[in-house]
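FORM 7B: Structural annotation worksheet

SECTION A. Query
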Amino acid sequence: MAHTTPKKFSMVYTELAKRYKLPFLPFILEGIHDQPHLMLEDGLHPSSLAQPIILDNIWPTLSHC
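SECTION B. Predicted structure
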């Protein structure tokens, strides 16, 4: 089985969004994922402190849907 890089994997979503004229949010954790105080202890999920930033990240796209 061929190895798929994260870049190639994410390109699938970009292409699907273009093909079907859907909004696309490349990374909703921008400005959060590298801030430990905004992440839960598992390092994968944002904490409640991150929610306003997530809203700021996604609202410009959602408001046009």
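SECTION C. Observations
Residues 25 and 58 are 7 Å apart (CA to CA). The chain has a mean pLDDT of 90.

SECTION D. Sign-off
Analyst initials: ____
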